[in-house]
Amino acid sequence: MAFTKAAPNRTPAPRPQAPTSEAPASEAPASRPSAPPDHDPQARHLNSPLLLTMLLLVVLLMQGPIRGLLAAPVMQSWMTVFVAVVVQALPFLVLGVLLSAAIAVFVPASFFARALPKHPALAVPVAGAAGAVLPGCECASVPVAGALVRRGVAPAAALAFLLSAPAINPIVLTATAVAFPNDPEMVLARFVASLLVACAMGWLWLRVGRTDWLRPPARASYEGQGRGVAFWGSVRHDVMHAGGFLVVGAMAAATLKAVVPEEWLRAAAGNPFVSVLALAVLAVLLSICSEADAFVAASLSQFSLTARLAFLVVGPMIDLKLFAMQAGTFGRGFALRFAPATFVLAVLVSVAVGAVLL
User: Phi and psi dihedrals of 132, rounded to 5?
Assistant: First the structure.
């Protein structure tokens, strides 16, 4: 009853304004029920160690079957190829990401307007020849080409650079000369064929390509922030974006490498036409870095030099991991059109150059 008397004492005339002024305040407590959303992330954080612990327990309980599975020759071959592809490609992917971020942050857009001819048809061979300067592989060229497109470079010129850089840079040509000490003409053949394909694909894109086929990924805006913040933000974005597609491509390459029997290669080497196509397809499936593919090609001594040239020209331009990275960087519609055209043109140019120089 003391409460019933206190209640009327709290509602005299001077206080009506307090409830009205406290109406927003009364809504503030109403906003406190939004605390559960604040608890949801916390609950997720609490559940994450639990899920990880459960996963580790499952792995411990299943370690016997898992060991037996990993001990199988097919799985050992799969793991070897997967790790080799990732380990080979990752340093050059990081190099490409750093170059991409440097281009995006530190290089003004006016530089490309001065460095490349204004006419796109003339910019294509200049950009293709510029690929000889970048010491990297196809993993590095994809993010760099994406940065060039975002900086206003004509897509045809950026694509010519993307194809030429992994195949005609000094490191790759030096590795080719070391791998083929008795066939020095292979270095010239690789340089000429790769540059021709890169320029031809750039001109082909200029002729039939459409802007809606090419969709560079959206970038977070770093306006108003320092160059250092923008640089590392761009690096983190590209590493997470391109690295994921690299892993997907490496998994596909490892799976196909473990499945395709080696006897098929011996049978294909006997036919000159089939041998070229077989090594071109093999280059796509193996997804070897361009710095190392010359040594693999040299080991395939049962095949002709022309067939091995096709292996060296196709591999740096289109393979499984490169297709995945191109799809992730420029869009799946672009990769589905660009990759088959590149493959066909690379095979035809390799045969023609091989017939002349080899």
Answer: -70, -10
